[in-house]
Amino acid sequence: MSFLAIDTASAVSVPGLLAGHELAGEARSFADLREVLEALERSLEPEAQAARALVARASAIVVGVGAPAAVAPIQGGLAPWQARKLRKHIDENLDTTLTTAVLGDLVALSASYFGRAFKSTFGETPHAYITRRRLEAAKDLMLATRDPLSQIAYQCGFADQSHLCRLFRRSAGMAPQAWRRANRMAA
Questions:
Q1: Residues 47-80: pLDDT tens digits?
Q2: Per UniProt, which keywords does this protein have (predicted)?
Q3: Could you say which of 2, 32, 83, 95 has the lowest number of CB atoms within 10 Å?
């Protein structure tokens, strides 16, 4: 009998265990599978119907029957705690030098693996992500303050005003001062 041939909807429920349709969207682990298989082993003799329900549950855990695609982990990516820690660290330290070696050390990964895992999780390289966050911070400061662009560039971690202007123009399609005027009038 194949695990995949089991119809989880027609299986009976087993006290203390969730049915296959109740597992949708839940995180599954090998501990869950071990629990199901141990219960299956105990129930094989006395109740064949309960055994079928347990096999259906094990199948749902292994193949993720009914689980939404968003629940599937990203292969080779960062753990959620690592992504949260990096986001927080980057946002709090935009004005400093942020290297992949330092960021990798922050989440206990080598620089080379960190770069691949970061891109897999965030969809862009660490450098591109940091640059985008710096530009977003610069936009916020341009709208919220009357500080000169040179000071905003420094506060956001750019080398100088021309560095900010060059990257800003590439990103927004206009000079920062023109963007500031246009968006201040709109607000």
A1: 666 666 666 676 666 665 544 444 444 467 999 9
A2: DNA-binding, Transcription, Transcription regulation
A3: 2
Cα separation, 73 vs 71, in Å, equals: 6
Helix (H) or strand (E) holding 186: helix 176-186
Q: What is the DSSP string of 125-151?
A: -HHHHHHHHHHHHHHHHHHH----HHH
The whole-model pTM stands at 0.60
Note the Cα 162 to chain centre separation in Å: 33
Residue identified by tokens 């749902």 is 60
pLDDT number for residue 146:
94
Q: At what angle do helices 48-63 and 30-43 cross, to 10 degrees?
A: 170
Q: Coil, helix or strand for 116?
A: helix
CB 83 within 8 A of CB 106: no
Using alpha carbons, select from 29, 20, 5 the residue that is nearest to residue 67.
20
- The residue assigned the tokens 């992500």 is 129
